[in-house]
Amino acid sequence: MKKWHYYKKLHILLIFVAAAIVNCSPSGTDNGGVVMLPPLGDGVSTLVGSAEPGQVDGARDIARFNNPTNLIVESSGTILVADFDNGSLRRVTPEGDVTTLTHQTGFSRPFGLVSSDDGTLYVQTDANEAGQSIGTGTIWRIDTSSGAADMVATDLGRPRGIAELPDSTLILADYLNHTVSILDPSQATPARQLLAGAENTSAHTDATGAEARFDSPWDLVVDGAGDVFISDRLNHCIRRITSAGVVTTLAGNGTVGTVDGPLLDAQFNEPAALAIDDAGIIYVADNGGYVVRKIDVANNVVTTIAGDGTPGYLDHEDPLQAQFFGMEGMDVVPDGSFLYIADGNRGSDIGERFHRIRRLKLQ
């Protein structure tokens, strides 16, 4: 294990021990299976979820998740959640009521989500139908009424970032293999077509197609012009990719930090989840810094809008005093009014008490 990973985990553990000593209570307290969540308010609120894992449908005070890793806002306004350790897709209303959409044999470890313009839902899972999860990234087509999942393609590596392009093809960010690819789900046997990057080769290189380099590309979003923005996690920056595969750096100077300012002067710390609203504002879960950032491309500025930089759980009317932990997936209401964040446990036993969906009021 790398030393920085060891010290990072030790740092998180010490924070949790200190919190217990001073009896810092979370925003919702568990009372016999019922989470006493306060009403949704301004700033950062818990929409639903608890420190206790489970798979329980119902109202926000009783519903449970088990490491929710990602989510998208559906056209109806409901939130679809990838409940990773439950192997389920869950649907949440803006009021916090939860139902299970998909839970079937062979469908496990869901992460990437995208709803196409025609209403088709595609989901990426780390595992295939046989439950294997090494290099077997799988894309499924979901019936949004019945929840039935049909496999579209498998053996795709680990493309956890997934979005739809204007021509209805899917674009995939493979964080393990450091590539960005195109997949046409309408084909009888869909196969990946490399757009940018090189298999198993990590670096930071702005170039075209196979000459470009990434280091753990995580998530991606597409703007109204069809340009793709991708979180290049271990390069600590946000990249832009055109339809021709031309890769440039949009924001971040490659130095680890949480520094706001002009796009190419700003600093990020392992940016992961992305979201984009109808105005083209990009939201970034700065995973290593435990904060949420906003990229205003038109005005050439990055700002921090939520999180105090401490890993933990705290709701607050002042977003900059709130605390997050998982932050692996998020989405924004198209009009830019609310940002929803999947605040899971990052697959860590240290973070075992994080199984929530958080809401950040933006307007």
Poorly predicted sequence stretches spanning 5 or more consecutive residues: 1-26
- What share of residues is helical? under 10%
Task: Tell me the number of strands.
Answer: 26
Strand order of the largest sheet: 3-26-25-24
SSE pattern, N- to C-terminal: HEEEEEEEEEEEEEEEEEEEEEEEEEE
Average pLDDT level = 91
Number of helices: 1
Find the structural class using helix and strand composition.
mainly beta
Name the overall outline: globular
C-alpha Rg (nearest Å): 19 Å
End-to-end Cα distance, whole Å, is: 43 Å
- Assembly type of the chains comes to single chain
Let me know the largest β-sheet: 4 strands, antiparallel
Tell me the fraction of residues in β-strands, as a range.
Answer: 35-45%
Describe the structure.
The chain is mainly β and 363 residues long. It is built from 1 helix and 26 strands. The strands form 7 sheets. Strands 3-26-25-24 form a 4-stranded antiparallel sheet, with no helix packed on it. The protein has a 4-stranded antiparallel sheet with strand order 4-5-6-7, with no helix packed on it. Strands 8-9-10-11 form a 4-stranded antiparallel sheet, with no helix packed on it. A hairpin with a 4-residue loop joins strand 17 (228-232) and strand 18 (237-241).
